[in-house]
Amino acid sequence: MHDYDDPAWGPLPVRPAVLRWLLLLPLTLIFLPLWWVVWVFFAVCLYGVASVAQLIVYIVPGAENGAVRVLDATLTRMPFVPLWCVTPVALIREGDTAYYQARVDRRVEKQTRRVETSQPGHEHHRDLDLGAHFFRGSGAGYVLRVASEHGWNLHPLLRSHPRRRLRLRHNGRPRPNFGN
Q: Which end of the chain is less crowded, N or C, counting CB atoms within 10 A of the terminal residue's CB?
């Protein structure tokens, strides 16, 4: 199990307001749309290659799992919102721990309800991917603490990094209802 008191799992340091408003905001406004165009272009190219690879999958048995993993691993290497980007929430709520904790609580509870009410065979709801923008003020340790109470653990296959991204997977079992 992870040491939640380790500084790597704690909240990210508060960026100075001067840095956020005078440097990161203009860079975000200029480069983020370009980043998104490159990301979408890259994704379209990968899906084009994937359609050609689908022909190989029909010929070579067992190649399907590898093709899907390569596509997922490649697209997840390029985040849609980079870590250097300043979101509007980060501009206003930087350092507000209570806001980020409430945000994490709502997201985990919502995703847990989706898992518990989903039909069998719909395992796409069992994964929860949170970028550092989402839990910046509360820390990855808080996310894991709250998520573990709802049946979430670190994803067994996909890597998580407490300063960049957390990838969680639900055990798929509904929580017992002791209220009845």
A: C
Relative orientation angle of helices 97-117 and 140-149, to the nearest 10 degrees: 30
pTM above threshold 0.70? yes
CA-nearest of 115, 83, 87 to 103 is 87
Contact between residue 62 and residue 34 where contact means Cβ atoms under 8 Å apart: no
Backbone angles phi, psi at 41, to 5 degrees: -60, -45
Q: What is the dihedral of CA 89, 100, 75, 154, to 10 degrees?
A: 180
Q: Please check whether residue 20 is in contact with residue 88, taking contact to mean a CB–CB distance below 8 angstroms.
A: no
Phi, psi of 87 (to 5 degrees): -80, 160
pLDDT tens, 106-115? 999 999 988 8
